[in-house]
Amino acid sequence: MMSSGGGTFWIMGIAWALVVSWTSATGMEDRCLPGGKHKASPSPEGQLGICQIYAENACCSPEVTQDLSKANDIYWNRCGSLSSRCEGYLQQLECFYRCSPIAAQWPHPQRPTAVLAVPLCQSFCDQWYDACKEDLTCARNWLTDWHWGPEGNNCSQDCLSYGQVRTLNAPRWMQPSAPEIT
Fold first, then answer.
1. Is the pTM of this model over 0.70?
2. Around 108, how many Cα atoms within 13 Å sit in the side-chain half-sphere?
3. Which residues form the signal peptide (predicted)?
């Protein structure tokens, strides 16, 4: 008969092996989204600035993250300057999209370079909303609500506060559904 400590260790070992096998068999291992400014496959990068959290295994280059840190080059501010708190949350999301080797686990079915239904903790969504509720946006759906031209994305609707829109967590690529980690 196995002791409870040894049995637990054995079961955890089997569970880990199954997760690793399932991940490899289903193609869920770390990979980059196709196209855009994503690298072909994740690899270490030295200096990623505000996206440094992904430096050990990144799908982005330092050049991509330099663009993120220049407020004038970021196109989420088409309705005026963003508060620093709101911009910080949008930069975190952009870092995830551009640099994370797990973002490709939530591919958009019609737009392979985009993601859809990424699970988020409700607490993150609440903090994001609180940071941005007074800031302005003109896109309710960040994949479809833009007029695209030579200068990038432009508003196709009137500017409203995120508080008025109240779909901050629905740029249609993230879902507040992940369980809280306590």
1. yes
2. 18
3. 1-25
